[in-house]
Prior knowledge:
36% helix; seven-stranded mixed β-sheet; Aspartate Aminotransferase, domain 2; pyridoxal phosphate; alpha/beta; PyrdxlP-dep_Trfase_major; three-stranded antiparallel β-sheet; binds pyridoxal-5'-phosphate; 11 helices; transaminase activity; globular; PyrdxlP-dep_Trfase; Aspartate Aminotransferase, domain 1; PyrdxlP-dep_Trfase_small
Amino acid sequence: MTDTETNPETDGGIDTGTGTESGYDDDSRGGATPVPIADPQLSADARERVTAILEDGRLADGPEVRAFEEEFATYCGTEKGVATSNGTTALHAALEAVGLDDGDAVITSPFSFVASANAIRLAGGTPVFADIDPETYTLDPADVRRILTDRDDVVGLLPVHLYGLPADMSALCTIADEHDLFVVEDACQAHGAKVDGDRVGTCGDAACFSFYPTKNMTTGEGGMVVTDRDDVADRAASFVNHGRDVSGTGGYDHVALGHNFRMTSIAAAIGRVQLERLPQFNRARRENAAVYDEELADLPLETPTVPTDRRHVYHQYTVRTDDRDALAATLAERDVGTGIYYETPIHRQPAYETVSTAAAQLPAAERAADEVLSLPVHQGLSAGDRRTVIEAVRDHFTTQ
Ligand SMILES: Cc1ncc(COP(=O)(O)O)c(C=O)c1O
């Protein structure tokens, strides 16, 4: 594994691990066990910036949010950023902005946090599930092609960069071009991940991020749409602010129906500090993953596969084994937090019983749901924490 970053730079939604979400890193855990599955690192700088916002008094949408949008878009290598209240609203706004109409079908992954498909439904569309690639857990381009030969109502693709690993964007974007489909990337778990040297967010029409506390960077709750398309940025910015005319004077001209999906200035202030630290956080995650790759290589489990064109940022370090539940139990006994992302694929969720292709057979997603287990890989891990995790996993397999 190589890290091309040179400057010092959970899930899935809800943290099902046993860890706490202790806050500021100047009073951190100090390497003591238990080892949580997630541990957001906030700094004294974030506290100072939030205090400054409280003193300033402009708590809602304002200059701090505009500055965060610009800085996050620059980080991603895109022209525009539109801040939102969370990752789900970012996806919803992006889908509206690329022109999803009621009843349109969008192909997505069944092996994701439910928000990926919920956003399609909330925007009036119908999620159609294609199976995942069993090695990378991301949307399988071959299955996408199979679906496109059967249906003519598909208008877009919503690939998910699961666990911090980008989907096969070069194959998916080729398919999108051939079939004239939009591509909205669900990058909610993949801040700073790369495809062919470019950060995610630059491949599709728009990409959406979440800043939930378990993610590689956080604002508490928050989200962002990034895009190179001015029209998409304008429509998303309007949609998250009750359809207000973005070209206007800031008055009450509402040119379309919209929501209040705005980010607060407090969230943006935290986000700006977290963004400065994201390269360092991602480097720590990648270093932790490299140690696990090496130390777990001889065990009867599969460590993450990273295709050569992609840079993984390890939102999760997910292993797979048919002994998953027993391994999770051993780690719980050893006070090591783990997470199963996701035990029930979206097509089998009760809320999806009536949704198109919900009953479909999606064997790779089904198998992954039975076998995956995420280990703590976050930037708050000490070398001692890593050792605790490695020894617990090794003991599980070697003392059986
Ligand atoms: C893949 C994926 N998509 C969408 C979301 C939704 O983000 P949020 O929880 O910020 O609404 C999440 C977050 O948990 C996610 O992991």
